Amino acid sequence: MTEMKRIGVLTSGGDAPGMNAAIRAVTRCAIYKGLEVIGIRRGFEGLLEGDVIPLTSRSVGGIIHRGGTVLRTARSERFKKPEGQVEALDRLRELDLDGLILIGGEGTFKGAWALHQRGIPVVGIPCTIDNDIEGTDMTIGFDTAVNTALDAVRKLRDTASSHDRLFIIEVMGRRCGFLAAQVALASGAEYVLLPEMPFDLDHLCKKLHYARRQGKTHSLIIVAEGVMGAQDLAAKLKDTAGYEARVTVLGHIQRGGSPTAFDATLASRMGAHAVKALLEGESGIMIGSLCGQMVTHPLPVAWEEKKPLSDEVLSLMEMLSI
Amino acid sequence: MTEMKRIGVLTSGGDAPGMNAAIRAVTRCAIYKGLEVIGIRRGFEGLLEGDVIPLTSRSVGGIIHRGGTVLRTARSERFKKPEGQVEALDRLRELDLDGLILIGGEGTFKGAWALHQRGIPVVGIPCTIDNDIEGTDMTIGFDTAVNTALDAVRKLRDTASSHDRLFIIEVMGRRCGFLAAQVALASGAEYVLLPEMPFDLDHLCKKLHYARRQGKTHSLIIVAEGVMGAQDLAAKLKDTAGYEARVTVLGHIQRGGSPTAFDATLASRMGAHAVKALLEGESGIMIGSLCGQMVTHPLPVAWEEKKPLSDEVLSLMEMLSI
Amino acid sequence: MTEMKRIGVLTSGGDAPGMNAAIRAVTRCAIYKGLEVIGIRRGFEGLLEGDVIPLTSRSVGGIIHRGGTVLRTARSERFKKPEGQVEALDRLRELDLDGLILIGGEGTFKGAWALHQRGIPVVGIPCTIDNDIEGTDMTIGFDTAVNTALDAVRKLRDTASSHDRLFIIEVMGRRCGFLAAQVALASGAEYVLLPEMPFDLDHLCKKLHYARRQGKTHSLIIVAEGVMGAQDLAAKLKDTAGYEARVTVLGHIQRGGSPTAFDATLASRMGAHAVKALLEGESGIMIGSLCGQMVTHPLPVAWEEKKPLSDEVLSLMEMLSI
Amino acid sequence: MTEMKRIGVLTSGGDAPGMNAAIRAVTRCAIYKGLEVIGIRRGFEGLLEGDVIPLTSRSVGGIIHRGGTVLRTARSERFKKPEGQVEALDRLRELDLDGLILIGGEGTFKGAWALHQRGIPVVGIPCTIDNDIEGTDMTIGFDTAVNTALDAVRKLRDTASSHDRLFIIEVMGRRCGFLAAQVALASGAEYVLLPEMPFDLDHLCKKLHYARRQGKTHSLIIVAEGVMGAQDLAAKLKDTAGYEARVTVLGHIQRGGSPTAFDATLASRMGAHAVKALLEGESGIMIGSLCGQMVTHPLPVAWEEKKPLSDEVLSLMEMLSI
């Protein structure tokens, strides 16, 4: 193991609130420990193009509270192929980088793993609003996205209750229901549809029917994008039972905004831990937060294991929506 | 003119932030002046059904900051027909109401006018997020909706700039561009499409093309719902010039939330002025705010004249998006 | 153990965001399980006065997102004395309550313990913005308070950086530094003073002096109320080293506002778990959340053990403020 | 009149939300019209030191929504003296500036007037949270500050109503009551003390006493800093009538944060109009917004005339707080 002198940091995949807080933490902790830090722009694509800037304590000042990523992000088809990865290695050597910290989700981690297998010291920081990474209780960005969606649902509740209406709200989360489940619970939504549970239209219609008879004049249904689109659900409800529902697709606003205190803190802690791990000679690993402690796992944990959604939430919703 | 002793208040049409602040102001000012106040629920439909509650100073306590309307709102097909209006008159007499204050937009005002013509003293308070009512510089709810949309656009800007992407954001406003124009100006959006200006796809594509060449890596297009849907615009941009755009339809979140200081204040002032006008024997009128002063106009002003959008905004956007 | 049929719920001590979400969860879960629920107003004082209202699924509808507590809260000198506690027992018997759920902090829990020792089945739910309760990773209200304070600090940063100024911001937390530490970390504040670490004025002045020489034109100092008042600190800095600092005391705004998603969720889970525990015959316990799991402990855990603040945060701040 | 080729822009005095939006508008409109733009940092002090940066369309990109001022601001004792002003003239000539746009409040405008009298073409843009500038209905920053204060008061209301308490909240506004009056009206505060009305402690105590007897369990008093400090008022209430009040001084958070839609729009319009006026050969003027129209006045209007506070607001509060 050669001594670490100069490391790179990049963000890749979909952006998430807290990416900048992580970039700042990586940069300042590395500088504090005597390293030089290079920011690679636009993820793996920028790496292939050698699109870089030096990062200093001052240049990451004031970014902790900004949404998005100052390093930008992009998808790279080239990097997915072996030739692209070999090229990336050349770039990393030209840039004289002794290690790389990669901030993103599953796709980012798979790219990091490819570089690790080709001999580059890499550490991954889990940052995605979907929270669909095993090995960490929470990913950076999830808490902010939940609160952004919650704020929107509260506004929709105003209209729903004023008009005695049924609303269907589609939230993000890819193939997982973490975002939908927490938004539903925190907003007091009446129903939630998650990829982790079988979709049963008859059951939903029965519950809607029962609630109407009990005098519930309005209802909110939260549907995870991994189940189906909100428009499709509205069409099914209309065809099957004649319900007229208003539809809102929250969309990309869930990715933006200043990070919450939780996400800014988690990003700071994970950024610092990533630098520490790299300096201690670790590679091919991701940072996780388990029971409030910083931990590391081999990167494949992120995608080889499926993070389970707690049953407790589902039974809670049943009781709380009466 | 008989002495006023007891008045009713209702909200009708689409809900808007500040409706509750207006209900509170009407109620407290009327009570202050010695009147009794009856709340009619669910607009004209509730009037026909006699669905009412007495309002007191205490019962409207704490509602000033709440979104939606505690009196709820509804559409009424029955009331649109002469028989329905006659029936409404009977209900008003049974309820022993000497006057009625109606909070809402154009449709509400047309209903109010029908009651006025049948001899009921009525005053309308303009409350709609669309700001499409002539006779008042601002309608209650507009300022809040603009700020809600602005907040969403700022979040989308985070993602757009991180991914170097083109975003199309559809905002409300019915057939008018007030909401879209102010959101565009306040957010620094690069382009805006308004019902008040001809739609020119070629011109838009040329501007996008020019901006790309100048090095603008991302752009936001705000489109008013009165022009076309955001999805349709995205399809046209793709077909004509190959642009890939992300689409967000802000939807009903624009109607919800606590009113801004401006809207809570405007609602308070208009509510007070409506009670004053009714007590002074006026009827068939709407309240307006012109140059900061409370004024009244005959109700038909609201729909017979088209409120113009200032040219200044359009030329400003041209300069500011360079 | 007699069968549970009817339980009471009260909030006591300082209010915290999420109290209403907890009341809602207790009420709906209890009703779901066949119990009747009585709300006791104004804490122990209201208990002594028999100031109660029945709670139903509908009456707790829409309160999940509201700050404060619909049951109100108060301090009670009477209840602290044995005679008061005996009187409270009489009231509980007259009200025919088989158990009591108490939502609040340390003082509330001590009162609950007194009732438990006199034979009343009680369960405590930890709800305070200070997070100073051992036995749970997080208390309800803490996450919201941190985010409220963070939002304020971000606004102060705007002014501090525009004017090249030193700001001192005093945050709550009683004798603990949890709130101050997380606000400092999440806001990127340059310095933090916590009750858990010795106060060293010389060291602080040296760091301020060093930062100035490095070109830092503005700085934020977060001081926990448990250390000293912000005004006192400003006076000391001026006397010792001539620094002119602006002072802001965040004060009671930290207690208000809608709960964050985290707090609304935690309150829902804890409320449900409290009902479950009471039905299973437990008493004299508090609910906790450890590593994401609902747990129970004897009430005295809350005050007999001191919850430690992680060292990691302190060393992190050292690195991140360079 | 020589042809304008190159202008300067500076911010001075207390910072206010929307300063950056104004800098952006000045810069882009000037560039659009073929001018070069120089940013002068730290107000008149930076002018004397020649602390400048060139501004481009790109360099002001993304600042429209940021609080504070990227050009920073400062107080300058030197500039207040004739020698300092002569020196400033030399600097302006060295910098080859044909005109200057100054963004700030009364003090800024007085400095601008001094330069105008020495032959420098100047235009002032009114930007202060106090709204205490005659000649414009609204100053940039006022609307944001009102909404920030309103948000804080809403949070305090949660606690006040939960604890049945009396709260005194001190807001900014210098010698004027605009901020206090609008916050009070929009928040539904029970009492407001403004510099524009005589302070009558007996009357206030009588109203508090009456409200208590009517069953009002909590009350909010908004006091403008121009009347007295909140702590002083609390002491007086205690000494005179035994009332225990909690005190909150909102302080500098009222200056920070992203501008509201109104302020971002007003700043954009005023910035554009200032460039237009300078190009048309005007000098020694300020921009105003009257009845929604951009206007200009000689600078002394700002301080020679006192902007009156509407009586309507005061009588409204009387009725609305019953």
Automatic annotation (TrEMBL), chains A, B, C, D:
Compartments in which it is found: Cytoplasm
Domain (Phosphofructokinase) ranges: 6-278
E.C. no: 2.7.1.11
UniProt feature coiled coil, ranges: none
Pathway: Carbohydrate degradation; glycolysis; D-glyceraldehyde 3-phosphate and glycerone phosphate from D-glucose: step 3/4
Cofactor: Mg(2+)
UniProt key word Nucleus: no
Family matches, as InterPro entries: ATP_PFK, ATP_PFK_prok-type, PFKA_ATP_prok, Phosphofructokinase_dom, PKF_sf
Positions annotated to bind ATP: 14, 75-76, 105-108
Binding-site positions, ADP: 24-28, 157, 188-190, 216-218
Translocase is among the record's keywords: no
Binding-site list for Mg(2+): 106
Regulation: Allosterically activated by ADP and other diphosphonucleosides, and allosterically inhibited by phosphoenolpyruvate.
Catalysed reaction equations from the record: beta-D-fructose 6-phosphate + ATP = beta-D-fructose 1,6-bisphosphate + ADP + H(+)
Key words of the record: Allosteric enzyme, ATP-binding, Cytoplasm, Glycolysis, Kinase, Magnesium, Metal-binding, Nucleotide-binding, Transferase
Pfam families referenced in this protein's UniProt entry, alphabetically: PFK
Top-level taxonomic group: Bacteria
Annotated positions binding substrate: 128-130, 165, 172-174, 225, 246, 252-255
Family: Belongs to the phosphofructokinase type A (PFKA) family. ATP-dependent PFK group I subfamily. Prokaryotic clade 'B1' sub-subfamily.
Subunit structure comment from the entry: Homotetramer.
HAMAP family: Phosphofructokinase_I_B1
Function: Catalyzes the phosphorylation of D-fructose 6-phosphate to fructose 1,6-bisphosphate by ATP, the first committing step of glycolysis.
Listed name of the protein: ATP-dependent 6-phosphofructokinase
Organism this protein belongs to: Acetomicrobium flavidum
Organism lineage: Bacteria, Thermotogati, Synergistota, Synergistia, Synergistales
